[in-house]
Amino acid sequence: MSKMATLNKRTNVELDRSVLEHKLDPKKFFLQWEWLLVIILVVILIINGSISDYFRGTQVLDATMNFMDKGFMVLAMVFVILLGEIDISVGSTAALCSVIMAIAYNAGMPMELSMVLCLAVGLGCGYINGILIAKCKELPSMIITLATMTIYRGIAYIILEDQASGGFPEWFQYLSWGYVGPIPFSLLMFIILAVVFGLLLHKSVFGRQVYAMGNNETTSRYSGIKVNRNKIIIFTLMGLMAGACALFLTSRMASTRPNVAQGYELDVIAMVVLGGVSTAGGKGNMLGAILAVFIVGYLRYGLGLINISAQVMMIIIGLLLIGSVLASNFLLNKPKALPKK
Amino acid sequence: MKSSVNILEKNKTKKIFRELGLLIFLIVLCVVFQAINPTFFTWENLADMLRNTSILAILAVGMMMVMITGGIDLSVGAIVALAGMVSALTVQYVPQLPAVVAILIGMGVGIGCGAVNGVLVAKGRIIPIIATLGMMNVFRGLTYLISGSKWVSAHQMSDGFKSIATSGIGPLNTLIIIAVVVVLIFYYFLNYNRTGRYIYAVGSNPESAVITGIKKDRILIMSYTLLGLLTGLAGVLWVAKFASAQGDTATGYEMNVIAACVLGGVSVSGGTGKVGGLLLGVLLLGVLQNALPLINVSTFWEDFIQGIIILVAILLNISVKRRADKNALKRREI
Amino acid sequence: MKKWMTVVCLLIVAAFVFAACAPAAETASQVPESSTESGEASAESSTEASAGTETTGSGKHAIVFKNTGNPYGEKEMEGFENAVKEAGQEAILRAPDQPTAEGQIQIIEELIAQGVDSITVVANDPDALQPALTKAMQAGIKVIAVDSGVNAQSRELFVNQAGSELFFFFKQKTAYEMCSGSGEFAILSATSQATNQNAWIEALQKIMESDEKYKDMELVKVAYGDDLRDKSVSETEALLQSYPDLKCIVAPTTVGIAAAGKVLTDKNLGGKVALTGLGLPSEMAEYIDNGVCEYMFLWNPLDLGYLAGYTAMALTDGTITGATGDKFEAGTLGEYTVVDASDGGTEIILGPPFRFDSSNIAEWKDVY
What we know:
The structure holds three protein chains of three kinds.
Chain A: H1 2-20, H2 26-30, H3 33-51, H4 58-62, H5 68-82, H6 90-106, H7 111-135, H8 141-160, E1 165-166, H9 174-177, E2 179-180, E3 183-184, H10 185-203, H11 205-215, H12 217-222, H13 227-253, E4 255-256, H14 264-274, H15 286-305, H16 310-331
Antiparallel strand pairs in A: 1-4, 2-3
Helix pairs in contact in A: 3-15, 5-10, 5-13, 5-14, 5-15, 6-7, 6-8, 6-13, 7-8, 7-13, 10-11, 14-15
Chain B: H1 2-36, H2 43-68, H3 76-93, H4 99-122, H5 128-147, H6 159-166, E1 168-169, E2 172-173, H7 174-192, H8 194-204, H9 206-211, H10 216-242, H11 253-263, H12 275-294, H13 299-333
Antiparallel strand pairs in B: 1-2
Helix pairs in contact in B: 1-12, 1-13, 2-7, 2-10, 2-11, 2-12, 3-4, 3-5, 3-10, 4-5, 4-10, 6-10, 7-8, 8-10, 11-12
Chain C: H1 2-19, H2 23-30, H3 34-51, E1 60-64, H4 71-86, E2 90-94, H5 101-114, E3 118-121, H6 130-138, E4 142-146, E5 157-160, H7 168-172, H8 174-178, E6 183-189, H9 195-210, E7 217-224, H10 229-242, E8 246-251, H11 254-266, E9 274-277, H12 281-289, E10 295-298, H13 301-316, E11 327-329, E12 335-337, E13 339-340, E14 346-349, E15 354-357, H14 361-364
Parallel strand pairs in C: 1-2, 1-3, 3-4, 4-5, 5-14, 6-7, 6-8, 8-9
Antiparallel strand pairs in C: 10-15, 11-12, 13-14
């Protein structure tokens, strides 16, 4: 009996939410995950400013250069996770893009073309992921991207072996080290892309379809949404952004080797989830993820400014991740996040 | 009555089919390796291979259980390091400690870590991948902190502790025996024990499991704790085997464990997974790790080849499964 | 109930945020005076500025190691800290959690923002740090590379542990002696990425080709253990399987040599297959004592860090400029001279590596 009662209660909560989504209740409005993120971000900025004399003015903007490369991937990863899928090959894709760009440039290709090639390789890798995931419905995307993760990095190793490659023209460094006025170029690019991706997700038909697919793929298919096509597009987009990440990362390091961007996938996924996007699919938005990029980035930078050792930093970031998801679960009374079906 | 028996038989053929595909693939692979390097199929090499694979097998059994509940645990590599480091430090300061106690200490640490993961997932309602990702950072950081960024080296460990990995009964190394025992226990547990069956129930359909009266949270916590226990055991074995405990022990090893499970037909969406298939997956990875250096491929090709083989194996597995499903469907129509 | 949960969760989040500043106190003991001084710096800066113009009392010197949790690196950083503290200055010890250039770049940026006087790097990649280090040099920060160097454009000076002299032990004895002049030997290297290791292997191959003495010796394989225990063990086992006549394994990496020592011990091959290379005494004591490895080499990381610390301070206070021929006094280590490096920059050479064998391993195994 009591079990039935709890079940009913839960269903009621679900109903409640769906009704409330249509009218703007001020209490609900301010109890959104994004507000909590904003508060955390502000607190981190204030603490950063108060504990360190160096966190001032342009330094606040400069600090973003350190995490913008991951930010690019976060933008596309939001789409992937909203679908209820996951892509853990992004770090390897970025490494492969970067390596191929360097090889092409050193083989005599003009830098502009090499950069296009870098993005194209990312596009291609993402497309392959997309095709495999759309065609093999039985296999979760995690497995397929686990395999392609090894393969993409393997190709990067085959190409460059133990060598580093670089020698890019001077202007290429502008991507990650240059400024437009006081704003770092990479931050500017991120903001522009964030707006584009935000509009795509929240103001376009495609974006609505993504939410529909994340909530119920079968229903979406029967409602006439081209599920497979959309999936392929999103994974291709993910690959493209991995290529963009590769551009900025390579520019930052002025050279590349096959082991760059190792472990980026977990960082990126962590940022997206911290931003309130549910890995079960269908819930979350772009703003949260973008805020999460800055939260994690500034937290790391702030801890670095007071010379916290890496091991303590790891613990703090791990606890932050868990603490914030815990908070979102209980504070915002989200329905139970069940394992993906 | 008769039809139900038929369906049972059909399911059985389907099951055999699935594992058969992987088995044939494994055999073909072994034949190829043997053709390239004849030392592959020697008793000594096989013993090496099994010894190196036993830790993976122990971890994979635990991981399978968690994956059956629909979860995943990314923190196993970090728990291996933490449990290994704690037991190695204990052995360093108390050299006369019996090896069994060191193992128990490691398992205790593992249970603690696993329980934290389990509670976060079950009671904290955090998605497993995120909860364990966060805890991975925490456990790894703790390992560095308690060790003071130092390593525990061979000469600081007692002979009894190191002999865990070098002793054996007859030609069988202790590591292999422990792995076999663990696999057998969990085979029984998952197939013939009521609680073990509950794990499948929770993974296949959480809602109906709850309605049938299964205490889902308890099952979840138990699965993660058991994985923690196995991970702690593996941590001690790892440290004993290499006679060295480092802060970065087993970094990224969780991906190998997950890959072994997935190759063995464990589904990440929960509910499915068999010990038999899992062993094939573990063996496939073990053979690759052992044979790729043997057949003299360039180091730079190893990643690529491994990735391609994993991809081919999983694609082959689906195509076999699809065919089997189709046949089953055809027979049902008649 | 729900409200309670809400309060608890808010508290947890708050705790994490404050955890961000709590460890500041913790590191104060670990990294002496770093955080306290940054707080008081503004108050004291006027007095210090007047006093500290020609004396060296207020310098801040940072060292960035490859990754955290590496005892070799800890010792190197300890040596650095000792040197800087002897001079009454402030040392900042940093390392990323993974051995990546990306992590080091971020740390270098943070150090630039803190306005340190010098940055000493043990690079994960010789080229990738160039933009970050160039930025540091433009900000007036002295940049020194130590141990694992960076390219000549992105440093002012390189503190080299052994230079090309490292090969003296290959040239004169070691592999030659251990194989008694003829037979097969193999190299077990770290990652295929480690530039210094590959440079050594290349030089070794050159020596073998050019010298008649080695005509009977054959390098059968260069295996890569990726500095991972399990992989190094698999690679060693594969070497033993594939080359039954193998006489010697040379492992110029601390993880690889210990893993190989373990395999040879377990297989009772001590005396049959010789093992040598670069290893940590603490890790290798076991295998030197049981005779699997007769002798091996390593320089003292404490000395290396110590020398780097004095170099950093000498560069900062203008004793040396990094030009060839400059001389300075490096504490207890004595006088050092800047020489030309093979890559076009300048370097300081610590000296030949130390040889560890059964006679001296006991006194070193507890040191590092």
